[in-house]
């Protein structure tokens, strides 16, 4: 996309960083998209160096897509919505980064997802992707649920579904758990023949690695495998309870975001599904709105 710059036009970049990927979009002040880039995961819980590298890589792609040079980062005011920065130490580490931008403002991916989903209005949002978490903002009140990271939390997420399936399969292969279609699925997916092969491929791996199994677990559940059904239903029940807790703030709108948002709907409580509204804009626009608000306040 081409770009015509004017002196009175400040450019912004909204960055959405999670456990699987980092997406960056450059906007004009009125929200017009100029360019977008996607890179690897950007969750400080799993490494600051990886996070910063992914932010820079997605920014460079977005700059090129906008018809700019990769050295033009200094023209952009950045809004970063990142997983993991709800941990104070990690937030401080990111804020202290010697970044390449004109200015940088940092908040959680939950916050920016909520801003984007409701185009700046109050509301609630649940992210169900590699991880899982919920957030609501109504008036002066806000509520954040989950976001504790893999493997301490993220129940109902892609990573959690993959982990629970792998745990059961290993028990089944040792003769301690109910036989399941998940066993053949996992062995085939990893290209191995036994439990040791599974361990070799999965032990110590990242949340995104386990999340790659989630669709297969859902497929097994939808095909009627009882073990897979129990895993998916347990995760979905948690997501439903998370939503009900967010509803105590009486948000006007509620949206679900992430790779599992749609496939999980069939397993959620009917009361929760009835309240789901479409997302009005992506998390990157929420990050841009956040940066624009912070930048304008700082320059008044």
Descriptive keywords:
300 residues; alpha/beta; 5-stranded mixed beta sheet; 4-stranded mixed beta sheet; disordered N terminus; ATPase; ATPase_BadF; Euk-type_GlcNAc_Kinase; ATPase_NBD
Question: Could you please describe the fold and organization of this structure?
Answer:
This protein is of the alpha/beta class and 300 residues long. The protein has helices at 48-65, 88-95, 109-117, 158-173, 181-190, 195-202, 207-211, 214-222, 226-247, 261-264, 270-273, 283-299; strands at residues 11-17, 22-27, 33-39, 76-82, 103-108, 123-128, 132-138, 141-146, 254-257. Helix 3 (109-117) crosses helix 12 and helix 4 (158-173) packs antiparallel against helix 9 (226-247). The longest helix has 22 residues, at 226-247.
Mean pLDDT: 94
Oligomer: single chain
The tally of strands reads 9
- Radius of gyration, Cα only, in angstroms? 20 Å
Number of helices: 12
The biggest sheet amounts to:
5 strands, mixed
How big a fraction of the residues is strand?
15-25%
Q: Helix/strand/pairing class, anyone?
A: alpha/beta
Give me the strand/helix succession.
EEEHEHEHEEEHHHHHHEHHH
Q: Which descriptor suits the 3D outline?
A: globular
Itemize the secondary structure elements and their pairings.
Elements: E1 11-17, E2 22-27, E3 33-39, H1 48-65, E4 76-82, H2 88-95, E5 103-108, H3 109-117, E6 123-128, E7 132-138, E8 141-146, H4 158-173, H5 181-190, H6 195-202, H7 207-211, H8 214-222, H9 226-247, E9 254-257, H10 261-264, H11 270-273, H12 283-299
Parallel strand pairs: 1-4, 4-5, 6-9
Antiparallel strand pairs: 1-2, 2-3, 6-7, 7-8
Helix pairs in contact: 3-12, 4-9, 8-9
Domain ATPase BadF/BadG/BcrA/BcrD type: 13-274
Pfam families: BcrAD_BadFG
Protein name: ATPase
């Amino acid at each position: 996309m081409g770009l015509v710059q004017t002196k009175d036009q400040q450019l912004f970049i909204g960055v959405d960083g999670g456990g699987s990927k980092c997406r960056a979009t450059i906007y004009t002040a009125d929200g017009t998209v100029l360019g977008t880039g996607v890179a690897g995961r950007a969750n400080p819980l799993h490494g600051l160096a990886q996070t910063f590298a992914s932010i820079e890589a997605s920014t460079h792609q977005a700059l090129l897509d906008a018809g700019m040079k990769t050295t033009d980062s200094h023209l952009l005011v950045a809004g970063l919505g990142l997983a993991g920065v709800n941990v104070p130490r990690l937030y401080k580490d990111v804020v202290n980064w010697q970044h390449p931008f004109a200015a940088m403002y940092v908040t959680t991916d939950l916050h920016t997802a909520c801003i984007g989903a409701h185009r700046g209005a109050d509301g609630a949002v649940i992210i169900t992707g590699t991880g899982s978490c919920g957030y609501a903002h109504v008036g002066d009140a806000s509520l954040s649920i989950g976001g504790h990271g893999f493997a301490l939390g993220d129940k109902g997420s892609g990573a959690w579904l993959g982990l629970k399936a792998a745990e059961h399969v290993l028990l089944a292969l040792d003769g301690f758990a109910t036989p399941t279609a998940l066993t053949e699925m996992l062995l085939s997916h990893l290209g191995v023949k036994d439990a040791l092969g599974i361990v070799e491929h999965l032990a110590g791996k990242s949340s995104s690695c386990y999340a790659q199994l989630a669709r297969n677990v859902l497929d097994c559940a939808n095909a009627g495998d009882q073990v897979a059904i129990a895993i998916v239903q347990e995760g979905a029940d948690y997501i439903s309870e998370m939503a009900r807790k967010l509803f105590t703030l009486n948000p006007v709108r509620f949206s679900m975001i992430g790779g599992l948002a749609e496939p999980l709907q069939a397993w959620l409580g009917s009361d929760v599904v009835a309240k789901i509204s479409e997302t009005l804009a992506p998390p990157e626009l929420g990050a841009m709105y956040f940066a624009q608000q912070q930048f304008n306040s700082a320059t008044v």
